[in-house]
Design brief:
The protein is α+β, with helices and mostly antiparallel strands. The chain contains 13 helices and 17 strands. The longest helix has 31 residues.
């Protein structure tokens, strides 16, 4: 039932009688009712005008969506100025607008008839830096060159002497070789150096794209930048132990004796494939490491087993083994090579290992075949006084930082408009920044195999 105005009841002697004409509060009710009706009519008129402008191409249809459920103050200000009366007051912009009282989605068939279902799938999941566990990470104070010194020797080997013999004469010695005499130049005393460099990735989106973005495509820009930063760090680290031909030729060398081959490990094959036997050969190579003076190096700490995505299944099978049948290193074979004796052992070789799958190995290594089979082991850099690789980050940038250009577009007498971005281009600019450098230190705590079994 519709309500009638107070004027209808005045003089209705069979209704409320003379009380209607004498009660003063009904005058205020009637005035408020007339005011509300006028405001409602004005909103309907402004909504109709907005709808007509969108149909005629004068306004962007996105304004109809913003009129019903605003998402930004820019649209609220524009609609309030262009279609006065559409809002009762600007506070209503944060709630559902009165336009919903007069229009529904059934009124917009001309706009939505060709779209039945639309959906936007966001960008990929956050990308962790898997291979950071393979390097020693240092904090750097500035952009100057970093020097790392290796002091070999210094202390003479323990020797036996006659207790009654006279004391030996003392003499100052020359520079102590800082690198293994079998590496590079003999008696090399130069420091190992590197300098951090700026690395950044940028993105820019125009105001028009933001206005037309009714699916929220650009809401994940920060996530995209974060992924780009971590990917860059991961690929940067991979480049220190992998090159285009396989394991890095400057880190895995004959001088370091850290290639998994028969000459270094006494194994059954050169460059074995990733397997229990290959891991045993790699552990034998690590155990045989000696320093520049020929004395053994004690390998302590956990070992990181690194490999590419093609070997993830193999690595997980090996790491999940419950027992292992061994014919070498404890078993025996006949002259034809057939096993005569098997040993059923617990998988001791994996108990101190952590798998590290590096997805950038087949990207950095471009040699067909090798990029799918190469693998290696690196002793935890935090457990070794001399790590295989060092990566340095400028203080505050170990985690890449995201920045946004301050918008410099504003209304006359108003505040900057975040949506409008740059005054000339109307672009919003964002970037992610990190500062890092790195270098190979010493190859005696890592071993590798091409996986090309010979």
């Amino acid at each position: 039932m519709e309500f009638q105005t107070v004027d209808t009841y005045r003089g209705d002697e069979q209704g409320l009688g003379s009380w209607v004409g004498t009660h003063p509060s009904l005058d205020g009710f009637a005035a408020a009712r007339r005011k509300a009706t006028a405001a409602h009519d004005r909103r309907v008129m402004e909504a109709a005008r907005l709808y007509a402008d969108c149909l005629n191409g004068i306004e962007d249809p996105v304004l109809i969506r913003e009129a019903m459920r605003p998402t930004h103050e820019v649209f609220v200000s524009y609609l309030a100025a262009k279609y006065p009366g559409l809002y009762g007051n600007l506070r209503e912009a944060g709630r559902v607008m009165p336009l919903r009282e007069t229009m529904s989605f059934s009124d917009y068939q001309a706009l939505f008839v060709d779209v039945l279902d639309r959906m936007y799938y966001g960008y990929y999941n956050a990308y962790p830096v898997y291979n950071k566990a393979l390097v020693r990470v240092h904090q750097l104070r500035d952009f100057r060159v970093v020097s790392r010194y290796l002091l070999d020797g210094v202390v003479e080997p323990l020797t036996f002497t006659d207790a009654a013999a006279p004391a030996p004469q003392r003499a100052l010695k020359g520079p102590v070789p800082q690198k293994n005499s079998s590496l590079a130049t003999a008696n090399d005393t130069s420091p190992i150096q590197y300098a951090p460099k700026l690395a950044q990735a940028m993105t820019s989106v125009n105001w028009r794209a933001f206005v037309n973005d009714d699916l929220g495509i650009f809401k994940d820009l920060a996530n995209r930048l974060s992924i780009a930063g971590n990917r860059g760090i991961s690929k940067f680290i991979t480049g220190f132990y992998v090159d285009a031909a396989g394991p890095s030729a400057t880190l895995y060398t004959t001088a370091y004796k850290n290639q998994i081959i028969i000459a270094n490990s006494g194994g059954s094959t050169d460059n074995p494939e990733l397997s229990v036997q290959g891991i045993i050969d790699g552990l034998n190579v690590l155990s045989a490491m000696t320093d520049a003076g020929g004395d053994p190096i004690i390998i302590t700490g956990r070992i990181k087993l690194w490999f590419g995505p093609s070997l993830e299944g193999t690595a997980n099978n090996v790491m999940s083994a419950l027992n292992v049948y061994v014919q070498n290193q404890g078993g025996s074979t006949n002259t034809q090579g057939f096993p005569v004796q098997f040993l059923n052992v617990q998988p001791w070789m994996i108990q101190r290992m952590d798998p590290v799958m590096d997805p950038y190995i087949p990207i950095v290594c471009t040699t067909s075949g090798v990029k799918k089979t190469m693998w290696g082991m690196t002793v935890d850099p935090q457990a070794q006084a001399r790590p295989a690789i060092e990566i340095g980050f400028l203080n505050g940038y170990e985690t890449p930082q995201i920045y946004q250009k301050v918008p410099n577009t504003m209304r006359m007498g108003g505040a900057p408009e975040p949506m409008l971005g740059d005054f000339y281009t109307m672009d919003q600019d964002m970037k992610i920044v990190t500062v890092m450098g790195g270098v190979q230190i010493d190859g005696r705590s890592t071993v590798a195999s091409t996986g090309q079994k010979v």
